[in-house]
Design a protein that fits this description.
Elements: H1 9-15, H2 32-41
């Protein structure tokens, strides 16, 4: 379990990859209601 281990978080960081141990940050999508409010203001 270290930098060379592909299944560990530290290994994912050193290998510059993502997976179950190191998920990507999820970007919040605006909801439909928010989109309607934004379009009405214009």
């Amino acid at each position: 379990m270290g930098k060379g281990d592909k299944k560990s978080k530290k290994g994912k960081i050193s290998n510059n990859s993502y997976g179950a141990r190191r998920p990507r940050k999820i970007k919040k999508r605006p909801t439909i209601e928010e989109k309607i409010k934004i379009s009405k203001k214009k």
